[in-house]
Amino acid sequence: MTGKKLLLKALKDRGVKYIFGYTGGAIMPVFDEMEKLENFTFVMSRHEQGAAFMAQGVSRASLSTGHPQIGVCMSTSGPGAMNLVTGIADAHMDSIPMLAITGQVATGVIATDAFQESDVVGVMMPICKQTYMPLYADDIEKTIHEGFYVATTGRGGPVVIDIPKDVQNAQVSHDYQFDPVAFRPHLPGYFYSPTPEREPLQRAIELINRSERPVMFCGHGVINSNAGQLLQKFAEKVNIPVAFTLHGLSAMPADHPLSLGMMGMHGTVEANRAILEADLLISFGMRFDDRVTGKLNEYAQNADVIHVEIDPSEIDKNVRTSVAINADVYRTLHVLLDDPMVTFKPRRRWLETIDVFRNVMAESLAAEIAHGVGTGNKLLMKTIIHQLSEVTQGRDLIVSDVGQHQMMAARFYNYQTNNSWYASGGAGTMGCSLPMAVGVKLARPDERVWSISGDGGFQMNAQELGTIMEHNIDVKIIILNNGYLGMVRQWQTFFFDGCYAGTPMQSPDFKLLAQAYGIPHRKVENLEDVTPALQEAIDHQGPMVLEFICDPTEVVLPMVPSGGGFEDMIVKHPQKIDKDLAGEGDAA
Amino acid sequence: MKRRAILAFTLDNPGVLNKVSMLIRKKMYNVDTLTVCRSRIPGVSRMTITLREDDQTRVTQIIKQLEKFTEVISAKELDTDHSYWREVAIVKLEVDVAHLQDFTERYNFEILEQKGEDVHILQIVGSTRRIDAFLDEVGQEHIIEIARTGVTALEK
Ligand SMILES: Cc1ncc(C[n+]2csc(CCOP(=O)(O)OP(=O)(O)O)c2C)c(N)n1
Ligand SMILES: [Mg+2]
């Protein structure tokens, strides 16, 4: 038996079906072995970053299926491994379990600055959950299984395993001998406590029963522990409205009467106003990052905070809790649902207050969506997303890139399917969508998958059209082309006096680009063509690119300025505010 | 700022010190000393970190971040009332013996070597403050070189 065989057998044992990656000198032995086995589908990305996001897509999308899979990406040493960095750091920020396997130069030349040697462990250490460098083939089995264990337990995260080339080739005297039942990784310093303790739960229930203006928070932990249905049941049981973090979206139907939509910087008025007025926040699986809280010392001043979170280091990190429950969200909700002490309250006044908040922007947004076009009759992103939501009845899987289009996709798609929304949140990595959509589609082949990017982000990983072409991966690709790095442009409009430095962008002819990969393309400029184009993409078997020409002056509102409190929420376009003051109405 | 000591037991793996020092840099902690030694248990190291921090929540955060490392078995704060904090200093100084004699009563030091007329190498053990006081009293102008271990600490 050889190290490389042990590696692949261990991956197989863990249910790995797809390996995303790119070959090179230091990983060639593993690729060679992989070619001889028929166990894996190898998917070659066109850049290692793409492979990392594809692996993320598999992990993210499959976790709510009967067969969760852990995404695996693989690269050679040096530049190959360095190209994985962004995708791994991104997975780390978003708590996505995945495995990155990198080839390393042979042990005999490590530390000599050998050809394509880089200190992968040193680089990866601060941006992943754990790193390994097995120095003997005998260690490989244990390392892979321990790696899976660490990646998938507690708060998930990426694990990097850097394997020197000679270790891949080395002979071991025994066969593959892993015993999953007997396996107990020796990790005396690794703890996680999934089961909630009785005492804080009791105090939490008391607070919930006593509260008059509670808000529940649904974070990524709800999705990751697959607890969406339980959360919805619990919200209904106690009659408490739910606000979502970016990554909590799709845990519950977006149009559920208790849903407040997204909170935070680009959250809804109702979510942010409700938080401001709340007397109790019950937060499930989230970390109160600055995009969610705004200015910390003004955040939820009058509210008690119950924080249910698997990672103890997140508790009391940004927001002081009244009750901390360091446990798995699913298990906690399970116990809460069964507890006879938890009571339903009508909370009529509170829900009425919230309805007032809902109405602050509802009408103007609805009017904008219906109008559909902005400056120069160019399309509005929110309208396109809205129409996508209508034609797909909110049931499809949405993989977004980073920018204005992302916030529009978060806000205006009516998510009906559990775990149907994917994006880079913590890191906000442009270019994630196209490759991540590949992984999502492979993990959930029976569902329709849309990749939504801006003209900027699309070009950051556009090379992955090659992978999509080669494997004929049926993702519907939407480019919301506004000719700008729109999200940054929006900040420039609001905070830099409209000086558009480094944000206007020339794009290639996306039609020719798509055609070069043999993928059909439609360019949509008129409102009446939006839905028919979406329908055409749905009817088309296989991938298709839809490019929508969008209004660069459209902004995502409301917006809580970075470092501001919820009181500072901007609900109107500044140009429009000026015109209002001048009595010129809303014609922008 | 308040001085704190954190005691951590860690696996004796190559990456641990790296992780701890990266954490210190990333979170911008004001670390004064960091000492590592073997513990009674084979394969387990004992790490003492002293730092300056008034904010208790920040200290709690450091401990939680340390505990988050797979290789850290336990981490906790030691307070001055319930633990001993000690360090060793080796000092090379130029001073005549008579002057040193003044301190033998009050300070626990040992002369390791006398080089020539009045160059001495001595070793002193005690709390950081005690060593500082000794050096001040002897007179900083006499000191040629100092090596200090940094603090190690033990719970009472
Ligand atoms: C890799 C990377 N570089 C830079 C940024 C900063 N950034 C955030 S959004 C954005 C603009 C995105 O433009 P585009 O993809 O066209 O989307 P739009 O906002 O126009 O919808 C930029 C540059 C980022 N998030 N990621
Ligand atoms: Mg754009």
Automatic annotation (TrEMBL), chain A:
<dbReference type="InterPro" id="IPR012846">
    <property type="entry name" value="Acetolactate_synth_lsu"/>
</dbReference>
<dbReference type="GO" id="GO:0050660">
    <property type="term" value="F:flavin adenine dinucleotide binding"/>
</dbReference>
<feature type="domain" description="Thiamine pyrophosphate enzyme central">
    <location>
        <begin position="201"/>
        <end position="335"/>
    </location>
</feature>
<dbReference type="InterPro" id="IPR000399">
    <property type="entry name" value="TPP-bd_CS"/>
</dbReference>
<dbReference type="Pfam" id="PF00205">
    <property type="entry name" value="TPP_enzyme_M"/>
</dbReference>
<feature type="domain" description="Thiamine pyrophosphate enzyme TPP-binding">
    <location>
        <begin position="401"/>
        <end position="548"/>
    </location>
</feature>
<keyword id="KW-0808">Transferase</keyword>
<dbReference type="InterPro" id="IPR029035">
    <property type="entry name" value="DHS-like_NAD/FAD-binding_dom"/>
</dbReference>
<dbReference type="InterPro" id="IPR045229">
    <property type="entry name" value="TPP_enz"/>
</dbReference>
<dbReference type="GO" id="GO:0000287">
    <property type="term" value="F:magnesium ion binding"/>
</dbReference>
<dbReference type="InterPro" id="IPR039368">
    <property type="entry name" value="AHAS_TPP"/>
</dbReference>
<comment type="pathway">
    <text>Amino-acid biosynthesis; L-valine biosynthesis; L-valine from pyruvate: step 1/4.</text>
</comment>
<dbReference type="GO" id="GO:0005948">
    <property type="term" value="C:acetolactate synthase complex"/>
</dbReference>
<dbReference type="InterPro" id="IPR011766">
    <property type="entry name" value="TPP_enzyme_TPP-bd"/>
</dbReference>
<comment type="pathway">
    <text>Amino-acid biosynthesis; L-isoleucine biosynthesis; L-isoleucine from 2-oxobutanoate: step 1/4.</text>
</comment>
<feature type="domain" description="Thiamine pyrophosphate enzyme N-terminal TPP-binding">
    <location>
        <begin position="1"/>
        <end position="120"/>
    </location>
</feature>
<dbReference type="GO" id="GO:0009099">
    <property type="term" value="P:L-valine biosynthetic process"/>
</dbReference>
<dbReference type="InterPro" id="IPR029061">
    <property type="entry name" value="THDP-binding"/>
</dbReference>
<keyword id="KW-0460">Magnesium</keyword>
<dbReference type="Pfam" id="PF02775">
    <property type="entry name" value="TPP_enzyme_C"/>
</dbReference>
<dbReference type="GO" id="GO:0030976">
    <property type="term" value="F:thiamine pyrophosphate binding"/>
</dbReference>
<keyword id="KW-0028">Amino-acid biosynthesis</keyword>
From TrEMBL, chain B:
<comment type="function">
    <text>Catalyzes the conversion of 2 pyruvate molecules into acetolactate in the first common step of the biosynthetic pathway of the branched-amino acids such as leucine, isoleucine, and valine.</text>
</comment>
<feature type="domain" description="ACT">
    <location>
        <begin position="5"/>
        <end position="80"/>
    </location>
</feature>
<keyword id="KW-0100">Branched-chain amino acid biosynthesis</keyword>
<dbReference type="GO" id="GO:0009099">
    <property type="term" value="P:L-valine biosynthetic process"/>
</dbReference>
<dbReference type="InterPro" id="IPR045865">
    <property type="entry name" value="ACT-like_dom_sf"/>
</dbReference>
<comment type="pathway">
    <text>Amino-acid biosynthesis; L-isoleucine biosynthesis; L-isoleucine from 2-oxobutanoate: step 1/4.</text>
</comment>
<dbReference type="Pfam" id="PF22629">
    <property type="entry name" value="ACT_AHAS_ss"/>
</dbReference>
<dbReference type="GO" id="GO:0003984">
    <property type="term" value="F:acetolactate synthase activity"/>
</dbReference>
<dbReference type="Pfam" id="PF10369">
    <property type="entry name" value="ALS_ss_C"/>
</dbReference>
<dbReference type="GO" id="GO:1990610">
    <property type="term" value="F:acetolactate synthase regulator activity"/>
</dbReference>
<dbReference type="InterPro" id="IPR004789">
    <property type="entry name" value="Acetalactate_synth_ssu"/>
</dbReference>
<dbReference type="GO" id="GO:0009097">
    <property type="term" value="P:isoleucine biosynthetic process"/>
</dbReference>
<comment type="pathway">
    <text>Amino-acid biosynthesis; L-valine biosynthesis; L-valine from pyruvate: step 1/4.</text>
</comment>
<dbReference type="InterPro" id="IPR019455">
    <property type="entry name" value="Acetolactate_synth_ssu_C"/>
</dbReference>
<dbReference type="GO" id="GO:0005829">
    <property type="term" value="C:cytosol"/>
</dbReference>
<protein>
    <recommendedName>
        <fullName>Acetolactate synthase small subunit</fullName>
        <ecNumber>2.2.1.6</ecNumber>
    </recommendedName>
</protein>
<dbReference type="InterPro" id="IPR027271">
    <property type="entry name" value="Acetolactate_synth/TF_NikR_C"/>
</dbReference>
<comment type="similarity">
    <text>Belongs to the acetolactate synthase small subunit family.</text>
</comment>
<comment type="subunit">
    <text>Dimer of large and small chains.</text>
</comment>
<keyword id="KW-0028">Amino-acid biosynthesis</keyword>
<keyword id="KW-0808">Transferase</keyword>
<dbReference type="InterPro" id="IPR002912">
    <property type="entry name" value="ACT_dom"/>
</dbReference>
